[in-house]
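Example 3.2
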Amino acid sequence: VAVASGALFLATAALFAITVFVPLFLQTATGASPTEAGLLLAPAMLGITVSTTLSGRSIAKTGRYKRFPVAGLLLMSAALVLLATLAGEPSRGAIGIGLVVFGFGFGMVGQVLIVAVQSSVDRRELGVATATTGFFRAVGGAVGAAVLGAVFAAQAGHGGAGIADGVQTVFLVAAPLALLGALVVLLLDEVPLAERLSPARG
């Protein structure tokens, strides 16, 4: 529970670099309207949907889940570095590709870690354990928004160029958060679901 909560805290903090600052960046750097900027987050949602579905099917088949959040957080970190690189010469298409990669990574983290928690505790502790992970996700989002917002404000200054620099710095700060999350998940004690659900042998 502690490992999953820590990883969810970091993953959600990194997520806010996308949900908060990408629309702002698209509006200032590419001239997108607020509505267009919101819709341009669709590639991330698509990546999340696809990876959540594929990882869920694999977990149901094999009972193994640890590799998914590790890979997902590494993909998130790589996507944030890619987006920071693209911030210098923004293109909606290129940013869309970065968002797909990020979404694909995040889709292997959130729900999978919740499954890991639920498979590692007794049934009577299920509600408390699930609520704990939800709490740390919420706190991660709040802290991520605050810290990344402060980084952006310190770097952006005034004007479009400053905003681009601020968003680029936010991505570069968020990338290590996702990478740290992957290192945290390596500490996860995986209990294969098939073994967890099989009848006890006397």
